[in-house]
Amino acid sequence: MVLDEPKETDDVFNINGFTLVIDKNLHGQTRDITVDFVSYGMGSGFKLTSEVPVAGAGGGCSSAGSCKC
Questions:
Q1: Domain total for the chain?
Q2: Is residue 4 one of the residues assigned to a domain?
Q3: What integer pLDDT is reported at residue 62 of this predicted model?
Q4: Looking at the domain assignment, is residue 14 inside a domain?
Q5: Which residues fall within 8 angstroms of residue 15, CB to CB, at 6 or more apart?
Q6: What is the pLDDT at residue 18?
Q7: Per-residue pLDDT tens for 9-67?
Q8: What is the 3-state secondary structure (H, E, C) of the chain?
Q9: pTM (2 decimals)?
Q10: Distance (Å, whole) CA 4 – CA 1
Q11: Per the domain annotation, does 43 fall within a domain?
């Protein structure tokens, strides 16, 4: 998960005041992705879960929110 500007090759979703961008090819492979903010132990961050699991996928950063794109 990174900050990026939308390109022609991206799908763009506006959810709860947030603009989410995902590469169209990746979106085709993963289908819908759920983005949740989780707190655990001494940390917190985003948890991304796709309809179709992708090997080696994952990421995190600090903020708040939950959405599905």
A1: 1
A2: no
A3: 42
A4: yes
A5: 67, 68, 69
A6: 87
A7: 999 999 889 899 999 998 999 898 898 999 988 889 988 899 887 765 544 444 445 55
A8: CCCCCCCCCEEEEEECCEEEEEEHHHHHHHCCEEEEEEEECCEEEEEEEECCCCCCCCCCCCCCCEEEC
A9: 0.63
A10: 9
A11: yes
CA angle (24 as vertex; 13, 55 as ends), nearest 5: 105
How is residue 21 written in tokens?
């961008």
The pair of structure tokens assigned to 3 is 């900050």
- Residue 60 token pair: 């995190």
Interatomic CA distance for residues 55 and 3, integer angstroms: 22
Structure tokens at 12: 């763009």
Q: In this structure, is residue 3 part of a structural domain?
A: no
Nearest to 36 by CA among 50, 52, 56: 50
Full domain range(s) for residue 64:
10-68
How is residue 18 written in tokens?
């947030």
